């Protein structure tokens, strides 16, 4: 049986990076949940900072360089995806968005995705719901219920983000989100597909012009008859 493939995308720019650290923590937690002995689990982290030039060239020319092509294939062929971005101006970073712009907008349909972000203050935590969920919903991915946001204060101890300390609350969120991702990945691997999730995969493919009632008829049905 082929191994389960888990890919984490990190859009951190600095080195060391709290964004990469969060991606590693999430990937390890999800791997532990998935590694039940029935199938091996392969984990890969894609560092977007190393692909920044290739992403820009791809957007200009439409042709990916070999390293970018390999990263895109890893993401699109993954059984589960973890997407982590730093918060820039109350949203995901431009590098993060550009990477997913070069991926075909149907390639992530029905793929389990865990969204996560890092920032300096808890005030930016809404980025998970007002920016990241809409992005992956548009791409028709299956976004797990729990998103993980890590502010500077969430990294506990005196080590700080770069040192790897993490607060108890962040640990709990990571564990819960990883468990949810593992459940979706197992279901997908068992052949659940989009039929197992109500509304999954709905979109342009679900449009049937023969079943659409013309707008004029809908208005007419609302007019009083007496």
From TrEMBL:
Residues 5-155 form the NADPH-dependent FMN reductase-like domain. InterPro entries: CE1759_FMN_reduct, Flavoprotein-like_sf, FMN_Rdtase-like_dom, NAD(P)H-dep_FMN_reductase. SUPFAM superfamilies: Flavoproteins (SSF52218). Coiled coil: none annotated. Keywords: Flavoprotein, FMN, Oxidoreductase. Gene3D superfamilies: 3.40.50.360. GO terms for molecular function: oxidoreductase activity. This is FMN reductase. It comes from Streptomyces daliensis. The lineage of its organism: Bacteria, Bacillati, Actinomycetota, Actinomycetes, Kitasatosporales.
């Amino acid at each position: 049986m082929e191994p389960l493939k888990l890919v984490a995308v990190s859009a951190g720019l600095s080195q060391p990076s709290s964004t990469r650290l969060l991606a590693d923590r999430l990937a390890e937690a999800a791997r532990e949940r998935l590694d039940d002995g029935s199938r091996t689990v392969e984990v890969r982290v894609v560092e977007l900072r190393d692909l920044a030039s290739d992403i820009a060239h791809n957007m200009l020319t439409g042709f990916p360089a070999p390293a970018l092509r390999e990263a895109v294939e890893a993401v699109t062929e993954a059984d589960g995806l973890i997407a982590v971005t730093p918060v820039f101006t109350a949203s995901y970073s431009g590098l993060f968005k550009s990477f997913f712009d070069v991926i075909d907008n149907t390639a992530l349909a029905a793929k389990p995705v865990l969204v996560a972000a890092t920032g300096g203050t808890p005030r930016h935590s809404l980025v998970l719901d007002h920016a990241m969920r809409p992005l992956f919903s548009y791409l028709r991915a299956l976004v797990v219920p729990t998103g993980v946001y890590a502010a500077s204060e969430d990294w506990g101890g005196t080590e700080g983000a770069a040192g790897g300390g993490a607060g108890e609350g962040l640990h709990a969120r990571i564990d819960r989100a990883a468990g949810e991702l593992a459940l979706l990945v197992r279901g997908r691997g068992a052949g659940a597909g989009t039929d197992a999730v109500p509304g999954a995969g709905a979109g342009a493919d679900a449009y049937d012009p023969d079943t659409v009632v013309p707008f004029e008829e809908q208005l007419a049905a609302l007019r009083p008859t007496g």
